[in-house]
Structure formats: C-alpha cells, structure tokens
Amino acid sequence: SNQVHQTPAALYKNQGELFKMECSHSISTYNVILWYKQSNYRELVFLGYMQLKTGFPEAGFDIEGDASAGGTSTLTIKQLTPNSSAVYYSQLIHVDSPDTVPQ
C-alpha cells in the first residue's frame, strides 16, 4: 500500500543543538516533499521543499536527500531556538514541471 512516514514522532532537544527530521514515502508518482511547522496551533509556516534530489530550504534550514519513492528527505535546523518548538509536517505532492511548485 502507498504510505508516507515521518520520523521521529517526537523529539526533545536543548537550545543550540542540531535537529533532524525525516520523511519518506512509497508512492511512485510523487516527487516533491514540502516541509512546514506549526507553533501554538497557529497557521502553518513554510520551511522549504525537496524536488527529486534538490532541496529548496528557507533561511535557517537545510533540506537534503531524495523526494522520490523509496528515498528520504531530511529537514535540518542547525541551531535550535525557543521558536523551534513546534509541530512539524511533511506534505507529499506530484509536480509535472519544475516551475510549478506551490509555496
């Protein structure tokens, strides 16, 4: 069956430490993973995306890996701050053209 996995389910770290989260999937026609965070039940904040093997992160983040089926996209925050405390989401989409990724 088609599945999307995001790990870890929960992570407890100290301020200033490195943070990594992974998203992988098994849906062959999907090739883009978008990353968001949500603090205090407010609106989602866009953190960047990975299309195939190229990451397009917002400032303060790294996105590496492979968004294709069987690959893993890794979101990295190099230095955690109090503002990093949030729920993090990965979204999987299919894009035909490299110029049509929504933000």
Please give a structural write-up.
- The structure is a single chain.
- The relative contact order is 0.29.
- The protein is globular.
- Helices cover 0% and strands 46% of the residues.
- The strands form two sheets. It has a four-stranded antiparallel beta sheet, with no helix packed on it.
- It contains no helices and eight strands.
- By secondary structure, the chain is mostly beta strands.
Supply database-style keywords.
four-stranded antiparallel beta sheet, mainly beta, Ig-like_fold, immunity, signal, 103 residues
Topology summary:
Elements: E1 4-7, E2 19-25, E3 32-38, E4 45-51, E5 54-57, E6 61-65, E7 72-77, E8 87-93
Antiparallel strand pairs: 1-2, 2-7, 3-4, 3-8, 4-5, 6-7
First-residue to last-residue Cα separation: 28 Å
Largest sheet: 4 strands, antiparallel
Extended strand count: 8
* Distinct helical segment count: 0
Overall pLDDT metric: 91
Q: Pairing-aware structural class of the strands and helices?
A: mainly beta
Radius of gyration over alpha carbons?
Answer: 13 Å
The helix/strand series, from N terminus to C terminus, equals EEEEEEEE
Helical coverage, percent range: under 10%
Query: Regions with pLDDT < 50 over 5+ consecutive residues?
Result: none
Strand proportion: over 45%
Shape: globular
Strand order of the largest sheet: 1-2-7-6
Domain Immunoglobulin V-set: 6-91
GO biological process, one term: cell surface receptor signaling pathway
Protein name: Immunoglobulin V-set domain-containing protein
Keywords: Immunity, Signal
